[in-house]
Each structure stands twice: as structure tokens, then as C-alpha cells.
Specification:
- The protein is 53% helix and 6% strand.
- It is mainly alpha-helical and 370 residues long.
- It has a single domain, classed as Alpha/alpha barrel (Glycosyltransferase).
- Helix 2 packs parallel to helix 4 and helix 6 packs antiparallel against helix 7.
- It starts with a helix and ends in a 9-residue tail after the last helix.
- Bound molecules: glycine.
């Protein structure tokens, strides 16, 4: 796909952002009906609110248009109370929702909000288990609290490593690194596939079981677990050059590339027996496209870097060609197939990761800048 096509896709997504920014006056965009484009919002941001902020920060930087900066600042300000929510998903909320503004536009507001989020997240760390637990207010999980772990929390380590860089507080560094190391044991299988969740003893840290909240079976590979593992360990390596993080990210990415359908867009769970007559998950696929673009810079050999770049381009191209509407909605994200929630919808995090990928492909963002 040529540079002009990436720019054209970006223009569509920017038009959709304009519609979103003008129509959502309260709460955070969460998921939208693919036919009407109407958003279901979350009042306080749920685990997903930061992705909308990140789109605004990115658009503010790449277009220079004042409204995107205004929206970014407004929604970042609205995240403040979430620094005190007892949920490990403060990692997503404050990395994407605020750190991106500090990194891309040196926003002092974003820096302040991000530091509050990082301190809040770090306060839930349990040194006996060397993990940040899901927490009592973790969103949409069937099991929450002090003895539960999810692979979608590894990415939150990037928030703590950024905060360590800003403050020099070594505790933030230690928590991020230990949490990510612990989740290799909790969630990463020997073949590079990833299990979403695990339970552990909050006194000793001993792992008790592996299971899934949103996958089809405890031993299946839910597409988003795989995707969160790839972006989580890629991000960890981006911020902390521990070779094991890159090794896990590469192994998980290679598993994805070996198991994804020929057209590159994953089904919602790799083990659904109904494949191909079941839902895709464009959001998982967009997460992986963004991660592959980072790996295309970080991988240790030229051959791997080329392979990841090629796969990222083909993946983004498939999403744009087959699932991005003329109005700029990324359709066919599958939020929660098990409970029938938003199974072919526009999902704010899927849109974000495609938007980030398109910026990289259009040459408007260095993949390891955020
Ligand atoms: N908990 C994050 C997700 O549903 O992908």
C-alpha cells in the first residue's frame, strides 16, 4: 500500500474523530454501533477511556489542529479521579490517556495526571507476590481482587517505567519489571501462545491456576490475550532493555503470525470450533499491527525486522481495506463474545491502535516514540 493510501485512511479516521469529539459531551467513548455510529460511553473511563485521549494527543501532534489538543486536555483532566480506583487497568488509562500527551506534546497537565496515575497504580503492588493484582474494581473481570492476574496488565509497566524516568524513584522501576517477569510464568505458554488470566496465593505468590475471563475455554487462545501479551512485552522491552521481554514478545508474535488466518485478521478466539463462521476481532488485530511495527525496530536481526514490518503492513492494509468504513469506523471488533456484548462493533482501543499504526506507516510517528 502506498503512502498516499495510509494518509487517506488517516483522513477518514480523523473525520470520525471530529464526529466523536463533537457528539460525545459526557463520559468517554467506549464502543459504537457500526451502522449508526452512535457511541456507548463509559461515565468515568472504564478501562478504555485513555485510548480516546491518546487518539486526541496523537491527532493534536500530527495535525497541529487546536481542537484535538483541547479535547485531549479536557479528557485527560477527566481522568484525574481514576488515579484512586483500585484497578490494575490504571496502566492502560494513564499510559495512553496521559503519558502520550507528555511524550508527544510535553504537556504539563498530561505529565501531572500521568504521575498521579502511576503513583496510584504502584500503591497496589504486593511485594510478597511480586505482582500488581487486578484489584477490587478491575473492570469486566469475572474474578477480581488481590489474588488475580491478567496478561492485559503487563503493558501498565510502561506507565511505571515512564514515571521512574521522570522521578528517579527506583520502586517504580522495580514494580514494573517484577510484575512483567511474574506474568511470564502466569500467562505465557511454552509454545508462545498466551493465556489471559491466572490466580495466585496473595500471601506466597504461588500460582494456583490458569484460566480466561473472555476466551472460549481456559486452555484456548483468546485473540486479545495474545495481542495484549505481544504489545505488553514489546512495550516493556521498549522501556527496559531486558532481553527476556524481547524474547517473549518475539515468541508470542511468531505464534500469532503462524496461526492468524491468511487474510491476517484474527478470529476472536483461535480455538473457536466455528471458525470461519464466527466473529473476527479487528481490535486484537490492530493491537498486533502496532506491536509488529515496534518489533520491526526492536527485533535483534535484520531478517526479523523485515519480516515484522512486512506483516505489520499487510495486517494494517487488511484492516483498512476490509473493515475501515468510508466514514472512518473500524468495524468488527469483538468486545465480549461470551456475553454477546458489542461483537461486531467499533471499539475505542481497536481504533486507537490502528490510528497509531497508520501514523507510523505514514511516517508521522516513530514506532517507539510512545
Ligand atoms: N480486559 C481487556 C480486554 O477486554 O481486552
Amino acid at each position: 500500500m502506498s503512502g498516499a493510501r495510509w494518509h487517506e485512511a488517516l483522513s477518514r479516521m480523523l473525520a470520525r474523530m471530529d464526529q466523536t469529539g463533537r457528539s460525545v459531551t459526557r463520559g468517554f467513548p467506549h464502543f459504537a454501533d457500526p451502522e449508526t455510529g452512535i457511541w456507548t460511553t463509559s461515565p468515568a473511563g472504564d478501562w478504555t477511556g485513555g485510548f480516546w485521549n491518546a487518539m486526541c494527543w496523537l491527532a493534536a501532534r500530527s495535525t497541529g489542529e487546536a481542537r484535538y489538543r483541547r479535547w485531549a486536555e479536557q479528557w485527560t483532566d477527566w481522568l484525574r479521579p481514576r488515579a484512586h480506583s483500585d484497578t490494575v487497568f490504571r496502566g492502560f488509562l494513564f499510559y495512553y490517556g496521559a503519558v502520550t500527551g507528555a511524550l508527544l506534546l510535553s504537556s504539563s497537565l498530561a505529565r501531572e495526571v500521568a504521575l498521579a496515575g502511576a503513583r496510584g497504580l504502584a500503591s497496589s503492588y504486593n511485594p510478597r507476590t511480586e505482582a500488581l493484582p487486578l484489584g477490587s474494581e478491575a473492570e469486566e473481570a469475572s474474578d477480581v481482587g488481590k489474588g488475580e492476574a491478567n496478561v492485559d496488565t503487563v503493558q501498565g509497566g510502561a506507565l511505571l517505567l515512564w514515571a521512574f524516568r521522570e522521578t528517579g524513584d527506583p520502586a517504580l522501576h522495580e514494580i514494573a519489571v517484577r510484575h512483567a517477569r511474574r506474568h511470564i510464568e502466569f500467562c505465557v505458554r511454552a509454545d508462545g501462545s498466551i493465556c489471559q488470566s491466572a490466580s495466585f496465593d496473595p500471601e506466597t505468590g504461588r500460582m494456583l491456576r490458569r484460566y480466561t475471563h473472555k476466551g472460549i475455554r481456559d486452555d484456548s487462545t483468546w485473540a486479545r490475550a495474545q495481542a495484549w501479551g505481544i504489545i505488553g512485552y514489546t512495550h516493556m522491552f521498549q522501556w527496559e532493555r531486558e532481553p527476556r521481554f524481547l524474547e517473549v514478545a518475539g515468541r508470542a508474535a511468531d505464534w500469532w503470525l503462524a496461526h492468524a488466518p491468511q487474510d491476517r485478521v484474527a478470529f476472536w478466539d483461535f480455538d473457536d470450533p466455528a471458525i470461519p463462521h464466527t466473529n473476527r476481532d479487528t481490535s486484537a488485530t490492530a493491537i498486533v499491527a502496532a506491536a509488529l511495527l515496534k518489533l520491526a525496530e526492536l527485533a535483534p536481526s535484520e531478517a526479523k525486522r523485515r519480516e515484522y514490518r512486512h506483516a505489520a503492513e499487510e495486517t494494517a492494509e487488511a484492516l483498512v481495506r476490509d473493515y475501515l468504513t468510508p466514514a472512518g469506523l473500524l468495524t468488527h471488533g469483538c468486545y465480549n463474545k461470551k456475553v454477546g456484548l458489542a461483537t461486531r462493533h467499533e471499539l475505542i482501543w481497536g481504533s486507537y491502535y490502528l490510528f497509531e499504526s497508520l501514523h507510523v506507516l505514514a511516517g508521522a510517528l516513530n514506532p517507539t516514540e510512545i
